[in-house]
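Q: I have four molecules that I believe assemble together. Could you output structure tokens for the complex as a whole instead of separate predictions?
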Amino acid sequence: MTTRPDSTTEEPDIGAGTDADAAGRPHTGRRRNEQVRRAILDAVMRLLARADGSPVTVDTIAKEAGVGKQTIYRWWPSKGAVFLDALTDHAVTVVPDADTGTLAHDLEIVIGASYTGAVAPQTAPVLTTLVREAAHDPHLAAMMRDFTAVRRAALHAVLERARARGELAEDADVELMVDQVYGVLWYRLLVGHAPLDETVANRLAATLTAGNAPKESTT
Amino acid sequence: MTTRPDSTTEEPDIGAGTDADAAGRPHTGRRRNEQVRRAILDAVMRLLARADGSPVTVDTIAKEAGVGKQTIYRWWPSKGAVFLDALTDHAVTVVPDADTGTLAHDLEIVIGASYTGAVAPQTAPVLTTLVREAAHDPHLAAMMRDFTAVRRAALHAVLERARARGELAEDADVELMVDQVYGVLWYRLLVGHAPLDETVANRLAATLTAGNAPKESTT
DNA sequence: GATTGTCGAGACTCAGAGTCTCGTCAAGGG
DNA sequence: CCCTTGACGAGACTCTGAGTCTCGACAATC
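A: Yes, here they are, computed for all four components at once.
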């Protein structure tokens, strides 16, 4: 029975135990090779970026990275976890918390960033594959919810701020507005029948603003 | 090599060849047993409706229906196809093409019907499982697109009619509005973090109407 | 009663996720 | 210096589930 260093149940949390374990024991034996971690993560992105829908299996990842399969499972609990780690490692984790003073403009920035970030050639295939994997991996599904929660929270903040400024109706359903934005994002990302660019983002920002404006207001 | 009667590539199309094949040959031999078809479809719905997330495999379907596995594959090209057939067979195929004269009201009807229909206890688990299967079955994914296209078209018609009446801005993005409605539907259906009822439907109908109203108009 | 095709049953192939073991290699500690 | 600990590559292995193949029984029609 292999004793996984720390992340038995949840996140990998690699790179932290470079010197000593979280516990007192000073971690004897050979150290974790950071280059191997990088090789695996890079291999995942490389395989996922391949336009042809060639299946990205654990074996192909191991082969592409020049790594043993066990090395992967030593640090990540499942294939999906590797995918998600590769994505978060690669993606710009900076979520723009726009605060320009106008709801419409704030929305344009946040929605625009989300949309263009999602359809970027390096991330789009990763996201779709991730959803595919999450479909039959509850563990990964939970991790994806955490991943998306950050961006949802940013949008939520923008909307609540606007409500405080009086730019939103008192009874506006902020949760529904957030779902409209990300519902459209995932829907179009997965089905791919319509674009997901700044034009769409701006249009959505405008109609969302107009549709949830306070009563008896022209702007 | 078994010769599938007709549906080698696409839809099952069962029950049609009761007397003679589409071709001239009068179909000798033992006939298709309609009760077996029913038993399979019912078994799928029964298994899918089970609240516990017990995996619905082809073997369990065959066992539940008291049927041989080959009998399933004789009439459906894949497991997903059986699921979809069970759904369309069960679901009310009548899509309400509301035409009350007001956009807001029309939307309430169409969106409300879609939302409540989707979360009905008998259909919700079927839909989510279907999407899960479609995630790694392109053939099923195509069938699902056909399935959803009908409802999308109904909503599209309502919106275009409203535009003709002058209830929508000339440059309103009808496609985006449709995606907002169904984006929210699938998003909430799959993540399950927020309700999908008439209240939400009415709220969405109202904000969609207000957000896409023609310029210089109060209503 | 011969032919054609359905049915239930179950063995089978194939793919992919995850596990186990082994021989090797790097970093300490004594 | 060498011994222990744990990382690593390699590859065999188990397990699950989709889809195929074959078989014997049976029903309909000629």
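A: One point stands out. Residues 1-23 of chain B have pLDDT under 50 and may be disordered.
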